[in-house]
Please model this.
Amino acid sequence: MTNSSTRTMPKTVAITGGARGIGYQTAKELIRRGHRVAIGDVDEVRAKEAADELGVTVVTHLDVTDPESFRAFLDLVEAELGPLDVLINNAGIMPTGYAHEEEDAITRRQVEINILGVIFGTKLALQRMLPRRTGHIINTASLAGELAVPGLATYCATKFAVIGFTEAARQEYRKSGVQLSTVRPTFTNTELVAGTAGAKGLRNAEPEEIGRATADLIEHPRPFVRVTRLAGGVIAAMKFVPGRLATGLGSALGADSVFLTDVDIGARQTYLDRIRDN
Model:
């Protein structure tokens, strides 16, 4: 439960990829808790619609792969809302399919958005927060950054990278007053999983759950949070299971096919077209 005294101290929070999905629901939850929120997204039209729906006054086009675009976003946030207290590096994409069939442009896009965007944002936020010796950077990773999933090879690589980068930076700046954390969701019911059925016996998370977990992390900082609790517990336990057994358990849960042969490409087409165009 959130401490009522925390609610009396609103923070300035910038969210990337805030136009839809987890970013949108995180913004909604933080606004509900009284924080000052700004959103940036590569889809400027949808970002402005989201801002109108949420009552957000600071919204702009943001290309997280371009450091100058990211810098301009944070400049706007601080000019309008005050010093940046929290950056949530949420923007990310998740194509599915066999690694050898993945288009080079899509591979590059994942690396640029999911890894470079996080690194650029973290560096820019640190440059603002370190002189004040306060601040919090939250990087959205995934449980797929802890346990490999067939059909998501590049995506898993990017999320493993986000966790490794954030943990190394967290240790590097542990005496600086600046917190660094990761949120590690299971597969979540947003456009990213359109056309997929999810693992057997484990429900997908809802974006509202990730929003609440992220808001709680701001108010009660720790190195990381896994969502859902059940999926997080399974992932944590699998690290102590022999490799062959872990692979067998993954197969039993449907991991061999859920993001490969069981994907409804037609249901994913709108999402795939959007991540190519943007």
Notes: The domain at 9-277 is CATH 3.40.50.720 (Rossmann fold).
